[in-house]
Every structure is written in structure tokens, then in C-alpha cells.
Amino acid sequence: MLLAIRDEFWDKGYAATSMDDLLRVSGLGKGSLYGAFGDKRSLFLRVLRDYDAANLLMLRERLVSATRGIDVVREFVLGPTGDPTGTVARRGCLLANSNAELAASTPDVAAEARRSYDAIATVLTAALERAQSEGDLAPDIDPSETARAALVAQLGLIALGRTGMGVGALTVIAQSALARLLPTPAQ
């Protein structure tokens, strides 16, 4: 049920999702929905936080299971290009979409975005530190600054994907950004 509610917000955005939409996709009556989750804003924040927690867990697990730290950062930046149909790129990211729609008017969303982006940058920093120790990244690169730049690159790709830019063009942009962000050590 929460996934259906999340998807409704994701597909329509917060403002365009009505309580009737949420009742329809949840299968709950108004009293039950309010009783379980409170108002629309509280429900939205719940699904946004769940979404962020799930994505962060996947990124952490990927870092643990990755053969090389550099692969985690490359896969992260290339994420919006992973669906050859372009559907994923056009849909964007629930957090990025919500931040663009609501951060200026809803401090809770801005705070959640900052918290989530900081946590992602921490994992990417660890991946880049590992990449340096594995000899895959130049030693003069600052892992923390580069992690934030990789996050910005991915967010830019998400924004471009939402415009309908093709996956091929997005991939070229991602590869170009990665080549500049992740220089290999001099031989």
C-alpha cells in the first residue's frame, strides 16, 4: 500500500496528488488513512523518508559487495541512464523531483533532501577513498569534494532525463563527467 502511495506521489508530484488519489491507490477509507498516517503532508514525508532509506541501504550494500570502489561511483552517476527505454530517466527520482517541487516552501522536504544527500555523499566518499587505496583514482583528488560533485552530476542527469533527453545523450554526458571527476593515477 505504501508503495502504491509512493508511486502516486512520484508520478504526479505532491501538489497534483489529491486525497482522492491516495484513497484510491491505498484502498483505505478516509478515516483509516488519516488514522494510520495523519494528513497528506505527513503521509508524503513518510513515503519520502522510506524511499530515501531504501536507496541509501542499496548504495551501502553496493559498496560492501563491489569488487572495486570506483565502480560504485560510476554506477551511481550512470544510474539515470540504466533503462534503455528512457522511462526511468523521464520519471526521475522521487527525492530530486520532490526537492525541486517543494524545498522552497516546505522546510521538512528541504531538510530531508539535505540529510539524504549528505548520507549519499558519505557513502560515495568512502567509495572514492577505497578507489584511491586500490589505485583506481589519482591520489591528489579530494574524495569528499569529488563525492559531492558526483552527486551533482547525477542530479543534473536526473533533471535532463526528466526533460525527455534520450538515454544515449545522457550516457555521453555521464561518461564525460566521470572522465573529469575520476582521473586515474599517473602511470
From TrEMBL:
Organism: Streptomyces iranensis
HTH tetR-type domain mapped to chain residues: 1-55
Annotated region of DNA binding: 18-37
Keyword field contains Mitochondrion: no
Molecular function in Gene Ontology: DNA binding
InterPro entries: DNA-bd_HTH_TetR-type_CS, Homeodomain-like_sf, HTH_TetR, Tet_transcr_reg_TetR-rel_C_sf, TetR_C
Keyword Iron: no
The protein, known as: Regulatory protein TetR
